[in-house]
Amino acid sequence: MNKMMKYIKGFLINLQFFTAIPITFELPMEKEYLKKSVQTFPLLGLFQGIIYSFVLYILHEFTPFSHLAVAFMLWLTTIFLTGGLHLDGWIDASDAYFSFRDQEKRLEIMKDPRTGAFGVISIIILLSSRFLFIYEITSNIEFMFYILILLIPFFSKSVMGVLLLSVKSAKKSGLGYLFQNAAALRTLWIYPIYIIGSLFILSLFHQKIILVGILILAAAACLLFCQRKAVKWFGGITGDVLGAAVEGTELILWMTVWLLHYFVIV
Question: Which pLDDT value is given to residue 81?
Fold first, then answer.
């Protein structure tokens, strides 16, 4: 029971740090609880994905709203649920990368609270692309899409956890270093269990569950890309780099579902 409570508190730490859901009471921040937090990153993503699919289902099935309105409200949900935390990382990392400076200068740019032109442009491209994918995916919705949408943040948060513990920290401070210092790569033994368990449960509900394998491959490709480029571009990971990785991975996964909509499912 005590061990289960540590996992629950770790999950609540994730809600407090990575979502806009108000957690008003104080949570323990010792290493053991931060370790459980890292181990429950995928569960945080699954929780987000359930909300996305539930919002889509309710709006699509029980409201008179147009397809455009439904897509727009789902798009807003993906933004507001996280409180824009990862989007901030995307903006800062974009500003730093497109400065075309050395690693040290890029880290300084990411700490600057001001937003540059490249950050603005990159966030416009990210959010407009996501809206396009959501709009066209939901134009001909079927049950399999609810599953795929549910899994998008599940895989992106899994990528965040692996990236956090498999790439060195670029600096000895910040949110990324705090979580990285609390766990080791072996902490991620539970991630494959999450994935296998999810696939087994979902296979009971839909015969096209094999399509999830395509999402897994896309997420794995994003992970490999981020592992190499985080070190090359920034000297390692920071909180902003992790946030950018989450947003970039989710964009690729939304695009993957969009392509499945055109060439496989429909």
Answer: 94
